[in-house]
Description:
Oligomer: single chain
Number of helices: 3
Strand content: 15-25%
Strand order of the largest sheet: 1-2-3
CATH superfamily: NAD(P)-binding Rossmann-like Domain
Number of strands: 3
Amino acid sequence: MTDFPLPNTSTDLTGQVAFVTGTTSGLGRRFAQVLAACGAKVVVTGRRVDRLEALSAEINASGGAAAAIAIDMTDRDSIRAAL
């Protein structure tokens, strides 16, 4: 997947927390990056721990704030454990 430039936005999400599902690839990953670029603290979630940790590290290294939580959104017990 091509990494497109972050959109030019004046939206300030400082002090907000975004809980984004499906962040190991595609739109979920991009949404997490954009929200972090707007100042939100981002919780990245998904099933692939290696990709979650890489995205979290990428966001933190770029000056954002992110935490990774492994979660399977098709499994209620996984959701309960994460929250």
